[in-house]
Amino acid sequence: MRQSLYWKITFAFILVAFTSAALVTLVIRASSPDRLSRLIIDQQKETLKQLLVDYYESHGSWAGIEQAWWRLEGRMVATPGVSVTPSFPLPLGEPGEGMGFERDRRNLFGLTDAQGRVLVSADPIYPVNSVVPPDVLQRDGTALSVNGTPVGYLIRVPRAPNFNPAEMLFLRRTYQALAMALGGALIVAVLIGLWLARRLTLPLQALTEAAKRIAQGNLEQEVAVVSGDELGQLARAFNQMSRAVAQANQMRRQMTADIAHDLRTPLTVIAGYIESMRDGILSPTPERFTMIYTEIERLQKMVEDLRILSQADAGELPLNCQAVPPAAILERTAAIFQHRAEQKGVILRVQKEENLPPVWMDEDRMMQVMDNLLSNALRYTPPGGEVFLQVRSSEAGIEFVVRDTGEGIPPEEIPKIFERFYRADKSRHAEAGESGLGLTIVKAIVEAHGGRVWAVSAPGDGLAVHIQMPAVPEEQKKTENS
Fold first, then answer.
1. Triad 443, 448, 453: Cα angle to 5°
2. How much is the pTM?
3. Any idea what DSSP says for residue 457?
4. CA–CA separation, 178 vs 180, rounded Å?
5. In this structure, which long-range contacts are made by residues 82-90, counting pairs with CB atoms below 8 Å and at least 24 apart in sequence?
6. Pick from 52, 304, 319, 427: most CB atoms within 10 A?
7. CB 467 within 8 A of CB 410
8. Cα 55 to the chain's mean position, in Å?
9. Domain count, the chain
10. Any idea where the Histidine kinase domain is (predicted)?
């Protein structure tokens, strides 16, 4: 059975916590006897050292030390009338209560004089009156001094002491405490693992459910952003994606409806005229054929516009780029639209900087851009108004501007004017026979050249469309000159 991420995270956290606690427990358990042995030996060494110094001070020599040795060493453990309290509490009735540690710790140390001659032997290797090598004295011996004068060495033999019942009890209770700590750590790890797994998987479950609803057709879904970490970033990205998909779907539906509407209008006109002439209601005349042909041209233009947009979307819009003087584009555009502007009573003005560098562009595509922009400008400029064609240099290349003195559009509508089938004034667009694709095509062609386009407007101040195009690259200039 497939295991959920919730339990995988929980088990992983428990495994890590248990492994860490078990390793710590094993290390402490393995090192506790050795550490306790070292503590016992260090305590005995310091006590015996002080006793031996006191003995030497009181006798002035080591005479009789061998006979007194067992009595001195015995003073390090319990003696009648002396109570040695352990460093941990002992229960009633257990060994060690009310008395010292009763454990044979003798024969762990030996004694030599200042020259290294053995006075008390604790190791068969060095019997009494033998001499311990200096390197052994330096390694295993502890110097004994009286008034700053060396008088001997305390030698420890390399063996561990046996533990008495109280110390064994201490170790057992230490091991029990470790086992309890390990069990407690495991319980805490389970609780934290469950909480952490739930906290991590709840956002993922919400994303999964939202994705399923999107797959079922409910495109606009929102999930709660509950943190600022990677899961929160994922939730925010999902919400943005959901909104973008819903918006794209809405635009697709709107575009389909707009295409159907715009295709239906000319087709209805054509079908009406042909049906009337077939039934004899209308007689065929050149004017009526001209009307039918005009609607056919309108359909052809719309199909061509859609083809251009599909090529631009796929990155396959063919461009025949070459170095073109920017002033030539403006002059050619003004010559084409001058008569139309005069017919409408609009003044067409051309403003250009001198000595502008050439622009790397497809001249025919750029004329298509200027045709769309000038057609819109003249359409919305009232008689007596002005339309400006401008070109100037900019930091990124060459900037074209087409500006009219019409009514303008509200600022909140400006980002929408380059969308497909956008119509700020649907009635005027319908009457003029527009497809609503003109500015979309402008944007597609300009961006295919590596340029960018934007608009500036305010109600009553007209509309200015800015086009920024790259100048001819230096490499291309060298190629053309060669």
1. 35
2. 0.50
3. E
4. 5
5. 86/166, 86/170, 88/170, 88/173, 90/166, 90/169
6. 52
7. no
8. 74
9. 4
10. 258-473
State the DSSP code for 383.
Answer: T
* Type of residue at 390: Q
> Which residue bears the tokens 């409910």?
218
Rounded to 10 deg, the angle between the 286-313 and 438-448 helix axes is 40
In this structure, which long-range contacts are made by residues 228-237, counting pairs with CB atoms below 8 Å and at least 24 apart in sequence? 231/200, 231/203, 231/204, 232/203, 234/203, 234/207, 235/203, 235/206, 235/207
Tokens of 159: 């063996």
- Span 161-183, pLDDT tens digits: 777 788 888 888 988 888 888 88
Cβ neighbours for 482, distance < 8 A, ≥ 6 positions apart: none
DSSP of 282-340: S---HHHHHHHHHHHHHHHHHHHHHHHHHHHHTT------EEE-HHHHHHHHHHHHHHH
The answer on 195 and 67 residing in a single domain is yes
The tally of CA atoms less than 13 A away on the side-chain side of residue 349 is 12
Beta strands in 157-307 (DSSP E): none
Q: pLDDT means per 10 residues in the chain (482 residues)? A: 70 84 86 84 86 90 85 54 34 35 58 90 85 88 90 83 82 88 85 83 83 82 80 84 82 74 81 89 88 86 82 83 91 92 93 90 91 90 93 90 91 84 56 67 90 88 91 60 52
Q: Which amino acid is at 404?
A: D
61 shares its domain with 165: yes
Residue 309 placed within a domain: yes
In tens, the pLDDT along 434-476 reads 567 788 889 999 999 999 999 998 788 899 999 999 887 655 5
Q: How far apart are CA 468 and CA 462, in angstroms?
A: 20
Nearest-angstrom CA–CA distance, 144 and 285: 137
- Tell me whether residue 300 is in a domain: yes
Q: Say whether both 38 and 95 belong to one domain.
A: yes
Q: Are strands 109-113 and 118-120 parallel, antiparallel or unpaired?
A: antiparallel
Q: Compute CA 41 distance to the chain's CA centroid, rounded to the nearest angstrom.
A: 57
Residues 109 and 122: beta-carbon distance below 8 Å: yes
Find the domain containing 299 and state its range. 230-313
- What confidence score (pLDDT) does residue 409 get? 87
Are 239 and 337 in the same domain?
no
Give yes or no: residues 278 and 386 share one domain: no
